[in-house]
Specification:
By secondary structure, the chain is an all-alpha fold. It has two domains: 185 residues, Growth Hormone, Chain: A; 205 residues, MFS general substrate transporter like domains (Growth Hormone, Chain: A, Up-down Bundle), CATH 1.20.1250. It contains 18 helices and no strands. It is globular, with a radius of gyration of 21 Å.
């Protein structure tokens, strides 16, 4: 395999485009897009809010557990075949959403949407960027992950406009058509010489930022103390944001904010997420993801402090900006960190484990937050507790990364 210079990042645009489009296309399986037809689906099947929510949570959990096996499969089969399975599965799910007349088929459609969209397509993009880029791993991951906020910005207006002139079923059929038509040429992008893996490593990096010579298996990762120290921090940000977003009507009520203003602040969240993605990429390539791990949690910790203490409407804007910055940067930093700490040979299996754990945490958040509110715990108290948990997470991550650097240096020649 011929090595490619680290300076030729944009010359390898086919692979970057492959990752970006997979993240963009995963939008069809993300909550924000599925929710656009949520009311119509509930009416069609005579489901309550709780009934539809429970069905959706079960489908999400099932997809997360399925990723334990399907995610690891990416280490053993051709990347193009895996991408084709993800695209085909998501297109099938879109057709089922449009045509289903039975509740069981709806459950299957939701499961496939979450599995192929949120799970397999994002997993394919992030894992392929981490495996096939070395010197430019951070920038490649951030460019590919920018497909997520791009989908969040572009697809809802298009879908709503199509629903105005037609109906919600047409939206899902159109999504299936786009995926089916893109499949033949999209899976050709990783096949050319410009998509081969980089073999060089920037000399300015600390040795702890270089992937180990011997990659860890998933079983070895589960026995590794660094993983256990990292685990709370990997699950907490998604748990927090999901809980806040799900209970946003309760939040705006107790804060005295308008729901329209909070909805408008989602634009700030998307912009901050994009900024976090694009800014973190060059930093990863210069400093290494392991050095950045504790710092990406700082903004979301401050976001919790804002929720706990601020009552003016600008507090909503501050929360969205800080939370978006953390979660955007975290996508790139965490994805690159797995490669730096545990190597790339079993990266699909390792990432699939982290995906399953994060899916579980986000599925539990709405219920746990709701239970606390039912017990009379205030939103401010919950936010203050989450700020304290984030501080503990930063301490644990710092300890994990120090342990990693010592371990690397002890094994250095």
């Amino acid at each position: 395999m011929n090595s490619l210079p680290s300076t030729g990042l944009l010359a390898r645009w086919p692979l970057l485009l492959f990752g970006f489009l997979l993240c963009f296309g995963s939008s069809f399986g993300q909550t924000f897009f599925i929710a656009l037809s949520g009311e119509a689906v509930r009416e069609r099947f005579d489901l309550s809010h709780g009934g539809y929510g429970n069905l959706y949570s079960l489908a999400t959990l099932a997809s997360g557990f399925s990723m334990l096996w399907l995610g690891a499969l990416l280490d053993r089969i051709d990347l193009r075949l895996y991408a084709a399975l993800a695209l085909g599965g998501l297109a099938t799910a879109c057709v089922l959403m449009a045509l289903t007349q039975h509740l069981l088929v709806l459950a299957v459609a939701l499961y496939l949407l979450r599995l192929a969209g949120q799970g397999m397509m994002t997993h394919t993009a992030m894992t392929s960027m981490a495996k096939r880029f070395n010197a430019n791993r951070g920038k490649a991951i951030s460019i590919a992950a920018a497909g997520h906020p791009s989908g969040e910005a572009l697809l809802p207006p298009l879908a709503v406009g199509l629903m105005v002139i037609s109906n919600w079923q047409t939206v899902w059929l159109a999504a299936a058509g786009v995926l089916a038509l893109s499949l033949p040429w999209l899976i050709r992008l990783p096949a050319g010489p410009r998509a081969q893996a980089e073999t060089d490593t920037p000399s300015h990096r600390h040795p702890s930022s270089t992937p180990p010579a011997t990659s860890y298996t998933r079983k070895a990762v589960l026995r590794d103390r660094r993983f256990h120290l990292l685990l709370p921090a990997l699950m907490t940000p998604g748990f927090l944001v999901t809980g806040v977003f799900f209970h946003q009507t309760h939040l705006v009520a107790v804060k005295g904010w308008s729901l329209e203003w909070f909805a408008l602040c989602f634009i700030a969240y998307a912009l901050a997420s994009t900024l976090g993605l694009l800014a973190s990429g060059p930093l990863i390539d210069r400093l290494g993801a392991t050095r950045l791990m504790p710092f990406y949690l700082v903004p979301i910790g401050l976001a919790c402090v804002v929720l706990a203490t601020v009552t003016v409407p600008l507090g909503a804007l501050a929360f969205m900006l800080l939370a978006g910055l953390s979660l955007g940067a975290g996508q790139s930093i965490v994805a690159a960190m797995w490669a730096e700490v545990y190597g790339i040979s079993h990266l699909g299996a390792i990432r699939s484990l982290s995906i399953t754990l994060m899916v579980i945490s986000t599925a539990l958040a709405p219920g746990l937050f709701g239970m606390l509110f039912d017990l009379g715990v205030s939103f401010e108290a919950v936010a203050a507790s989450m700020a304290a948990i984030i501080l503990v997470n930063i301490t644990l991550v710092t300890a994990a990364m120090r342990r990693h650097r010592r371990q690397v240096l002890n094994h250095s020649p």
